Amino acid sequence: MTPQSQSQSADVDAARLLLARLGLSPEDLLAAAQDRPPVPTFDEYIPVVSKAVSEGTRRVYGSYWNRVREQWGSRRIDEPTPSEIKHLAEYIKTHLVQRRNGRGGRCAVEHLIGALRCLYRHAVDDGLIHKDDNPAAKVAKPRRLPSTRRAVADTRLAEINHVAATTGNDPALDTLLLRLHTETACRRGGALALRPRDLDPTQCLILLREKGETQRWQPISPTLMTALQQHAEGRYASREGQLLRYVNGQPITTRRYDHLWTRIGNHLPWVATQQISMHWLRHTTLTWVERNFGYAIARAFAGHTDHGGDAGTTATYVRASVQEVATALAALTGEPHPLR
Question: Containing H/E element for 215?
Fold first, then answer.
């Protein structure tokens, strides 16, 4: 027997010993391999994952899954390596549509890796790959840069509201949007998901449904409540349908926000230069609440949960009530609130 064959024989004996200790046989390994479903291609599997995720996740990751299909559509999902994912990230980073508020493609790379991690998590759950074979988990996301958003000064906020109220084809809608976001510090998704049935005029509360499938009752002023009710009635919003609508009764989309801030930027150059958006109003309101009423109430006003982030377990014990949020709102708007 040659030295090579002796070595192979020793390896075989060691493998048999290991299998015996595990209570397995070679036939068990062959059966397990046959039981695993065939690994699909990206073209086959991405539509499956897209149907399984929430609408918000689909909206964020959909364009990146499309880019993956363009590059790897015919490949099996277990073929790409971490290095290939890095190469794809660099390709997308260098082939971006350059925007004025872009940050060098870091956000695109972050979303691409997030989209692939989401896809491979489903593949692990479906038994298509082993969790240790997930290539996207081995690729680090780029470090997120600090946000450039900040609170808008009162005088600047007055200029924004003046332009919205005196220009455009629907000043009533635009001023209502600005007031809604200023009073509630809600996100765009929360405003667009608002329905007439989500209004509680007796207690001046609205139900906000935002990202992460979170829900919260948010106090608003009596003036804003009246405006929302009149808007819904005047624009024929059904009780279960979207509340915010155009004059013709069609529901608005994110396009209205884009057009609104583009128009304001045309009249106020500093708005265009700094890329002011509706999310800046969220920063403005929450900064004011935190400075005047403290962190706990600002956290509740923002609708932040007790999970994730760096708030720590103390946030569980200092959680603010809706009555405290209403008190802060009353001070912000100068109007009494039923829950105060």
Answer: strand 214-219
Length of the chain: 340
41: helix, strand or coil = strand
**E strands within the chain?**
199-200, 205-210, 214-219
- d(Cα 73, Cα 67) in Å, to the nearest integer? 9
CATH superfamily of 154-333: Intergrase catalytic core (1.10.443.10)
CA distance 108 to 89: 8
Do 246 and 235 touch, CB atoms closer than 8 A?
A: yes
Could you list the mean pLDDT of each consecutive 10-residue stretch along the chain, which spans 340 residues? 60 71 67 67 95 88 94 94 93 68 69 94 93 92 77 94 96 97 95 97 96 89 98 95 96 96 96 93 96 94 69 67 95 94
* Nearest CA among 253, 257, 225 for reference residue 326: 225
- The full set of domain ranges for the chain reads 42-138, 154-333
CA distance linking residue 179 with residue 190, whole number of Å: 14
DSSP string, 75-128: SBTT---HHHHHHHHHHHHHT----TT--TTHHHHHHHHHHHHHHHHHHHHTTS
Burial of 109 (0-12, 13-18, 19+ CB in 10 A): buried
Q: What is the pLDDT of residue 27?
A: 66
Amino acid at 107: C
Cα–Cα distance measured from residue 152 to residue 150, given in angstroms and rounded to the nearest whole number? 6
Backbone phi, then psi, for 216, in 5-degree steps?
A: -155, 150
Residues paired with 210 in a beta bridge: 214
Q: What angle do CA 51, 52, 53 make, to 5 degrees?
A: 100
The per-residue pLDDT for 245 is: 97
Coil, helix or strand at residue 337:
coil
- pLDDT, residue 145, reads 66
Q: How far is CA 104 from the centre of its chain?
A: 20
Q: Is 96 helix (H, G, I), strand (E, B) or coil?
A: coil
